[in-house]
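Q: Here's a chain of 468 amino acids. Please give me its 3D structure as tokens.
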Amino acid sequence: MDIMQVSNLAKAGESQSLELKTSTSQLEGVCQTVCAFLNAKGGIILVGVKNNGQVIGQHVTDNTRQEIAREIKKIEPPANHQVNIDYVPLEDNKFVIVLDIIAGNHAPYTYDGRPYARLESSTGLMSQHLYEQLLVRRGQLNHAWDTQSAKGYTIDSLDHEDIRRTIKEGVDKHRIGIEVLNYDIEHILRNLELIRNDKLINAAVVLYAKDVRPDYSQCMIRLARFVGTDKSDNFIDNQRVYGNAFRIISAALEFAQRHLPIASFFEPGKLQRTDQPAVPQLALREALVNAISHREYTNHSSTISLAIFDDRLELWNNGVLPPQLNFAALRKRHESYPRNKTIATIFYEQGWVEGWGTGTTHMIGYCQKNGTPEPEFEEYSGGFAVIFRFKEPMGGRKADKKSTLNKRQEKILVILASGESLGVNEIFDRLDDVAGLRTVKADLSTLKKLALVEQIGKGRAALWKIRA
């Protein structure tokens, strides 16, 4: 760090992750804050800066350095690797002492036998309740799958662009300190607690790996669009997507957008059109984040699955509810017990979820605002499912006429249910059917006679769409 960076930080003023001290005469307070930062998300302490941000520096001798080292040793468990000390030179043989603290892996930490916590820009003694919570969490983290060391993966195995996107979004949401934008990738990963004992943990691979195969083959989602209301019927699209959490979420949202219809209408007295998706995208993203945070990764043979039927979208992941929760509790704010707390915490800090225990209530709220049925929750086959039922089944407005259709004609209606206007060749390509182009043209003619579809234009340039 150079003097320009020090000055910019000092001007920003004290915060949740920045402390200013005038000199090492306040060394006891400095180390109390070091302890508090270790117990939180890390931070920076500038010694030689007034509370108003004026950089004054101080003289540094060998005795000063030894005194700092002695006090740091009073922190338990030992945190030498989490506290980086730098001496930034000023004029007149003075220095600003910069203590850069990386979040600890073994909270709660104590200084001189006492635990400290950070609240906004103040440091104080930690409450007994928080201390006990951190002790329990330490025990859980020692055994949780997502905190175990990742085998065969290095920092270069991760997508650095995805990592920096997490930081940028977290800063925008005021959940990550702005100074983290200037950290290198290793420093960021340590700040996010994705490096422990100098090794990447499984959560880092799940969230950011460029390639998850073959060692993390459970990081996959199955995507299918079925014709009808159960899996015994044919499907018109079936995919498997391997990748990190953000690629899985992106692929699932894109798949849903491609296959789900959007109802457009004008409300009385309003000139602006209202678009009503069959499933609100934010509700679906919330469900996907929950699935990734709560799933049981130790089962390598099971994956997340997203299935779209004529009447619903169903998202399933391996791992049932914890014993402390039931279905009724999911419909109100409740305590959260994520199976993979480190993964869940990253989603929170990025701003993709509002808080633990609010995911299911937010899904309900998004659906209510959208005017679509509230999601349902079920458990089966050793897993948990979120079911979004459609306000109106796809292509179901003329069910009496549809009862006479063959499977191929039903598939055509499903393809056009997205609201797109397609040419006959595009429809033929998406059908993936043995029938020839002439048969598809005949099917479209039948659907047109039944007033289920309409033709726009003539000849080879003609387009087909669902009839409103």
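Q: Can you summarize the key feature?
A: The longest strand covers residues 235-242.
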